[in-house]
Design brief:
heterodimer, A: 115 residues, mainly beta, seven-stranded mixed beta sheet, 11 strands, B: 111 residues, four-stranded antiparallel beta sheet, 55% strand
């Protein structure tokens, strides 16, 4: 079955440590996205990538980094520079987004808690 | 700028109807609707495009007023499975297709 996987589902880290969240898709989608979700604030775009080896900052990129070395994979690193990293992180993919006419498919999410 | 959804929350009895609204201050190319169950991934419901085209599930209906930059999602004869948080995502004209989500509307359907 095609879909998006994120791992782990729950992640605990100490303050000051970098942590990498995994996102893999087998939908053959070119575009991938990372969102952060906090209670009552909806989904906010962190980074997005329309093609391998290319990515752009979203609205809240500070303190995060990404890579896109393979079409299937778009890992997100939460660095120690992110002041409030505790949140629910969602990865999504779609057919290239410039047309904005195609839905995004979401992974199950990773809940990160920084202690 | 984030679109504004209303109401923020609504409680229904099974079989009742509800309308969720989404309003943007910018001219829009399209509006997307998603539903999220607690702790799960958002699931696509519908896309409404400038010019009147729609893509989505047959059992969901929605409208898009391009002039007012507003969209409404219509939930009729609600079922328990309709419970969840509904998000609209707007795609402003001339911003490269980036999807900007509203803060969500929490819908609870009671027996």
């Amino acid at each position: 079955d095609g879909g998006i996987t994120q791992s782990p589902k729950y992640l605990f880290r100490k303050e000051g440590q970098n942590v990498t969240l995994s996102c893999e898709q087998n939908l053959n989608h070119d575009a991938m996205y990372w969102y952060r979700q906090d209670p009552g604030q909806g989904l906010r775009l962190i980074y997005y990538s329309q093609i391998v080896n290319d990515f752009q900052k979203g609205d809240i990129a500070e303190g995060y980094s990404v890579s896109r070395e393979k079409k299937e994979s778009f890992p997100l690193t939460v660095t120690s520079a992110q002041k409030n990293p505790t949140a629910f992180y969602l990865c999504a993919s779609s057919i290239p987004w410039r047309e904005a006419t195609n839905e995004q498919f979401f992974g199950p999410g990773t809940r990160l808690t920084v202690l | 700028q984030q679109p504004v959804q209303s109401p923020q929350a609504v409680i229904l009895r099974e079989g009742e109807d509800a309308v969720i609204n989404c309003s943007s201050s910018k001219a829009l190319y399209s509006v997307h609707w998603y539903r999220q169950k607690h702790g799960e991934a958002p699931v696509f419901l519908m896309i409404l495009l400038k010019g009147g085209e729609q893509k989505g599930h047959d059992k969901i209906s929605a409208s898009f007023n391009e002039k007012k930059q507003q969209s409404s999602l219509y939930l009729t004869a609600s079922q328990l499975s309709y419970s969840g948080t509904y998000f609209c995502g707007t795609v402003p004209v001339g911003e490269g297709g980036k999807l900007i989500f509203g803060q969500g509307t929490e819908l609870s359907v009671k027996p």
